[in-house]
Structure prediction request, 974 residues.
Amino acid sequence: MKRLLILSTILALSLNLGFAIQKEHVKNDSLSHKSQTEAVHATKMVSEIENQDEVTEGSHEGHGLNLAPFLFIILSLFIGTATRHLLSKGLLPYTIMLLIIGLILGLLTRFDVLQAVGLGIIGQAVQWAGNIDPHLILYLFLPTLIFEAAYALHIHTFKKSLVNAVILAVPGIMVAIVITAFALLLIKSIGIGLNEWTILLAFLFGAIISATDPVAVVAILKEVGASKRLSTITESESMLNDGTAIVLFMTIFGLITGEAGGNAFIEFLKVSLGGVLVGAVIGWGILSWLKKVFNDALIEITVVIGAAYLSFYIAESVLHVSGVIAVVTLGISMAGPGKTKVSPEVTHFLHEFWELAAFIANTLIFIIVGVVIAQQVNYTLSDLKVLLLVYVTIHIARLGTIYVFYPLMRRIGYGIAFKDSIVLWWGGLRGAVALALALIVAIDSRIPFEPRNQLLSLTAGIVILTSLINATTVRWLIDKLGLSKIGDIKAGLMMQSLQQIRLSGEKEIEKFKENRYMSGADWDKVSSFLIDANAVEEKPQHFNLEDAIAETRKRLLQKEKESYWRQFSMGMLSSEGVNLLSDQIDALLDFGGKIPLSERQDIENIWTTPKTIAKLQNLPLVGRIWKRKFLNRLALSYDCARAFVAAQEENQKSLSSLIIGFSLGVAESSKETELLSALEDELNENRITGQTFLRNLREKYPDICRNIETLLASRSLLNQQEEMLERLKKQGRLEPDEVERIQAYIHSSMKQLIDTSLKENTELKVAAALRNTPGLNNLSKDAQQFLITKGQLKIYPEGSVIAKQDSDPDGIYIIINGTVNYYKSETLTGVKEISDVFGAYEWFISSKLRYTFTAETPVTLIKINTSTIKLLTNKFPETKRLLQFSASADIALELLKQNEKFSEQSIRKLRTLIRNAELFELNDGEKHRFSGSACILVKGQAITEEQDTLFTAPAILDECNFRSKGDALALILP
Prediction:
């Protein structure tokens, strides 16, 4: 909380600094662009401000500082908090009440009422706000409001609503501008007013007034529990059409003032896409920075605040592109991947800060808007007639905006229901952005005085009318349309929860009665504080069990999602894992609980790496990147599967508490039991799926699983130590500075764990494989290190082809992890596992590969090229014999597994048998008698003595008495 207060003070001081700077803007803007007639008016205004400054400076002699802006900020914040506290149950939304208060303050100042009653210093502060530089509104308030709205978005809902929001914000706002502009020209043509308006000025006003500012409407939607989809599209459209409106405003304004250059359409694209690029680049930089910081709220929050303002400033002032779109892009990047880059313990604090910042900004801006309107706007009877016509016009334009595209929008993403479209239409309020743009026009002398004064008056009037009429009636409209109704099933669940709370309270009272310090209480009075189970406004009438089960599924999915984020906050789930699993839950929630919990994408397929990418590993640089990615994907698979199983087990424990009371309104209790059992089966199926995947991964990649489990155990230990530290602190056994030192050590260790890469130790794994490979297990340390250094590490996803039949082997393959199937003409012949080799026999006899080798599971292997073998044998001549033995062992193991005599023996026993075998070179015509358990002809031909049968390698001889025919090679098993 201390930090929150410090940051709040910094924000207030920043606002004060901005207001102090704007004094010179008022003087300069008032004098630099006025015509001779208007210069008199400007001089008078500046003189009034200077007189106010003299009074203020006189009362604070020696300070050399005008404190009017500071006083206005303090007063506004107290007015805002008092309004929220005292009028929280008023009929008007909070921001609209502030607008009214601002209007009243402005009028009191305009007619010198405050001066007359001895409150001149307050009048000076209000007068200062009434002459605020409009650019300050955009630069000071807009980044906060836009970023806070974007950061608070539910990204999955936003993505599915984005196309509709873009339709409303880009082509939609253009339709609104066209309708508004032609309506204004029609008003001019019939002689009601706007006599000096041009077509460009009409389009400029259309751009100003078409941007919506539904702050009050969104607050009401959230308050009444309306659809998250409706509030998301309302807020998304507002953010995007602010950017579009400002871009179009600047384009048309440039055409009017002669500052526009080049093609207007190209300029629009440049400004819009440039804003996206600025926001994306700054977002990437900030996320990279945040990734290196752990649990330091001051750094993380300050960086995010600075990024919001920096992106707006660079976009608008340096690159002259859309600052609003830049901030929206930054906010969305922070709401998506950025949520997991902020330290878990800082995330809640960051949300609280931006809520506070938005509250302060909204408080100040709505009071300022009211003051500005009251002080600077003048109306004639003719102006009021035009204002009413324009008010009707903007609603017609808004209607056109929505319903021209409605047939398309209702088919995209979530679609838009007809009732939702009515709220979108009526909830299109206008606010501070429109007024700021109108003020920019009002101080520019290149536009005739009367039209720009009318433009400001009309904009201010529309802001007031939409705030006082639309904002105050939208709640009634939502209720009439039935969008706030929670439904029988939710009302039933609410009643059930209240009943459980009451029952728990009654049991607690019985315990209190036995407490000697409470036994004499007035229990009737105590019981009056028990919650009323009938407090639900909407009583459930009837609901069927299918709806109840659907609602239960939704709540189980929400609980599952909460489990993932809790595991992430504890460091038990990676940032990528929590995003992946949460996205899957969001996709399931789109079905509204109508499909079983187990009907989700198979957990083994979610993280499958595309097989085609395996070919990239042959490229020098890309290959290393791909291998790292593959290993990380395997680690991610384990991470997510473990978290998935944990979440399913939590849901299984809480399922019965969610089902209690569902018999309300349901006649068939047997059906209820049946469907409850179905939910249990769905959760159990999920749990088994995850456990099966984990078991298979442990078998195929034990080292990766061991690394992950080591990290999890380490993080759990650090969490336990931090909890113990907190207990010791509460017990008073440690001083605060001692706690900070120990906590810094724990957090440093946590950061180190987060940065730990889950990679295989290649050298150790290759060495282990070589030790278990017959022949190569006898390599010297130097020869082994040579192979590890020169060998090529290859990684293949499940199902990918490693080598094809009849192709050149080009070396020897040694399996490090996983299993490999080998096929003869598409017929499965056998399986090779860890430490098995293939391609060695073909290399040895210089032939084509006899089989096609395919990864049955994800496979890691090392390939020793023919050129590497040549270098090895030249440097270590003794290794030639060992490689020959390894090739012989390769074919021997294959033959023994297919032989009836040895087929029942385990692979381990066969490997041990082969490892202890001897390799003999045979000359042509030599007779041999061996006493081994089996003789395997590896190379050449041999004729057995007794059977007189000719065998051609590779083959197992019927007997160990034979005569070689030509030079041959035989492996004799003990």
Remarks:
- Residues 545-700 form one domain.
- The radius of gyration is 38 Å.
